[in-house]
Amino acid sequence: MKLRKKTIAIIGLTLLGLIVLLYAFSQIILMGSFTQLEQQSTQRNIERAKNALLDNINRLDSVAGDWASWDETYNFIQNGNEAYIRSNLDPSTLANLKVNYVLFYNTSGHLVHGSGADIEKEQIIQIPGFFQPDLSPNNIILNHSDINSSISGIIILPEGPMLISSKPILKSEHQGPVKGTIIMLNFLDSAEIERLSRITNSSLSLSLF
Fold first, then answer.
1. What is the pLDDT of residue 49?
2. Separation in Å, CA 46 to CA 16, 41, 106
3. Are 163 and 16 in contact (CB under 8 A)?
4. Residue 18 falls inside a structural domain
5. By the 8 A CB rule, do 53 and 196 touch?
6. Residue 29 in domain
7. CATH classification at residue 121
8. Is residue 3 in a domain?
């Protein structure tokens, strides 16, 4: 009888041990699966955010390209005529284009003209200090060695991070010689981050290190 009880006790303890081991292994497997799923979800969110940001940069790049290869801009960079400013650079026009800043530099790095607009309020805003009044012609954002040159990305300024597109100013037929540079900028601020969050269905934030 005692032997039977001992046998039952041993079997019971063995089964209990197996159950504990199985539970531990299942938890490890589940935790590993959850971690993998979280990593995959994070990676997908990063890709969506990156693609949304690239779409914004490409859109700004396209607008800058249209303005850069235009006879009216080509003439303006050389003579600075007021008619061009009145027709094309008022706050409502920039708001419709969804562009915060448009800057025009000649080949010497002189700022021929700069316009800034609050897109939501359609009001004039001040040009960032970095771009006033002149830049070195060797500055990377003005360094367009040929007609197909293009610079775009994100620039960090005291006013905050901005999307930037820089293009050589050419004739409408996309012909040179290059007479200067047009730069377009968009704020990458909290409102834009929130908009990107809605597009990507993700909670996004921007941290500068």
1. 72
2. 44, 9, 39
3. no
4. no
5. yes
6. no
7. 3.30.450.20
8. no
